[in-house]
Amino acid sequence: MTVLVTGGAGFIGSHLAEAFLEEGHRVVTLDVLDPYYDLGIKERNLERCREAAPDRFSFVEGSITDRSLVEDVFETHDPDAVYHQAAQAGVRTSVEKPKKVHEINTTGLVHLLEAAVESDVRRFVNASSSSVYGVPEYLPYDEEHPNTPKSPYGVTKLAAEHYCRVWNEIHDLPTVSLRYFTVYGPRMRPNMAITNFTSRCLNGEAPIIYGDGEQTRDFTYVDDVVEANLALLETDAADGEVLNVGSTGTITIRELAEHVVDVTDADVEPVHEDARAADARHTHADVSKARELIGYEPTTEIRAGVSRFVDWYRDNREWYEPLVRRS
């Protein structure tokens, strides 16, 4: 197959691109290379893909907001499947720049959906987010939980899900939306809590917790996310559906910081600063629907996953840490 991965130079997108290449597929990556964080990480991600399969990997630089570019990519490469990971990430960023987030996360998606219908794409997978849920009425969240997003980012992700549903119903486009729950792992974004905690602890600095630290998160290791996406290339069981992609449990941010301190052997204590606006208080995924429809089974518990990430960070510290510290 030919698989188009939008946002394929980013964290999750590059892991997916590598996985599809390992499976023997052709991969086309479309990415604008927005310097939301240091581009050195994205450039290294692309180089890994080129080295893995130079004859089966193509990179197109540009934005999904450019309709003519999107149409050209589909006409040139004729993808069988689209894995849409491109987005303006960041809950806090969306509060500051809502118009930019709307243009990328909704208008850009519509361009892709229109092109996918014209190209008779066999599978369209949309990366959504647990941010669509907002304030929990109960936990864990199942897919029927009310959606009351607290940020413009969450609003755009919910709108994207509805666009995918409508395109499935009106145009018979085989769409699926995956609601990711805080994905982490090697090459993750520098501005995420686990990266910041690790970087600070390895440099003898106290990890900073925003708020009281009792907020909980369902952190999902990137390998589990990749497996969920790979499964969708082999089945049509989830057409038109929305699925949670979470982990095996939750952890408080305070416990997370303390675990990173322990794993790094840092002689520091976490410190607290004011809570950030629009951050969710708690997240926790019920993954029973994904388990039933696509056989999804998360395998990486948060403490084990963080330990693996710290090991990877140490092994790649020479190139990764300067980029983290600059971001």
UniProtKB/TrEMBL annotation:
- Among the Pfam families in the record, one is GDP_Man_Dehyd
Question: This protein's superkingdom?
Answer: Archaea
Q: Start and end of every NAD(P)-binding domain?
A: 4-307
Task: Kindly give the PANTHER family that the UniProt entry links to this protein.
Answer: DTDP-D-GLUCOSE 4,6-DEHYDRATASE-RELATED (PTHR43000)
Q: What is this protein called?
A: SDR family oxidoreductase
Originating organism: Natrarchaeobius chitinivorans
